[in-house]
Amino acid sequence: MFKTLFAALLLLLAGGAQAEPGLDAVIQDANGQPMALTQYAGKVVYLDFWASWCGPCRKSFPWMNDLSKRHGDDLVVLAVNLDPDPADAEAFIEEFKPRFTIGYDPEGKLARRFDLLGMPSSFLFDRQGQLISTHVGFFTEKARDYEAEIEALVSAAGVKKP
Fold first, then answer.
1. CB-hemisphere CA count at 13 Å for 93?
2. What does each C-alpha distance from 97 to 30, 33, 42, 159 come to in angstroms?
3. One of 54, 80, 119, 150 is an active-site residue; which one?
4. What gap in Å lies between CA 138 and CA 19, rounded to an integer?
5. Helices 55-71 and 86-96: crossing angle, nearest 10°?
6. How far apart are CA 145 and CA 55, in angstroms?
7. Do residues 50 and 119 make contact, with C-beta atoms less than 8 angstroms apart?
8. Cα 61 to Cα 50: distance, rounded to the nearest angstrom
């Protein structure tokens, strides 16, 4: 019996017992100060990882600007930059002028925790902080699908978009 329990424990530990990504993390703001993601508790959060060299990120930023504008306070759009050199991120930001929150993860700690598979990578969380969906890359032809997921979460609590 001991061997069976031990084997089951080993299988559990080896087979994905790792916790899924969550909002219990801290990144940096534009001034290098800590920014806790827990401050967004109770909100729908679209968390996007990006870098200045990422081609699809150039398409996702205008879409995220529009998303942020349409949903206002009902949705937090948070884009986490992974460039090691802040100057690269600054040039990108100057070009695309985001109307949503930008955070920084220059050492890639949060990116490793989220186990990114490509750029950009996005993670959608509900108001309870539960991970609802993930997307690798940004495809304009799938934007309506992304928006439907977001709309369902925003309206789930009876909140109407403007």
1. 17
2. 14, 21, 27, 27
3. 54
4. 25
5. 60
6. 21
7. yes
8. 9
- pLDDT tens for 106-141 read 999 999 999 999 999 999 999 999 999 999 999 999
Q: Which residues of 5-30 are buried (b: 16+ CB within 10 A; e: fewer)?
A: eeeeeeeeeeeeeeeebebebebbee
Q: Which residue has the higher pLDDT, 6 or 90?
A: 90
- Token pair of 19, please? 């916790």
* pLDDT of amino acid 86: 84
Answer yes or no: are the C-beta atoms of 24 and 37 closer than 8 Å.
yes
What is the predicted pLDDT for the residue at 157?
A: 63
Q: Are 86 and 105 in contact (CB under 8 A)?
A: no
Among 57, 89, 102, 116, the one annotated catalytic: 57
pLDDT of residue 95: 96
pTM above 0.85, yes or no: no
- The vertex-114 CA angle with 112 and 119, nearest 5°, equals 85
Active site (annotated) includes residue 57: yes
The answer to whether the beta carbons of residues 146 and 156 sit under 8 Å apart is no
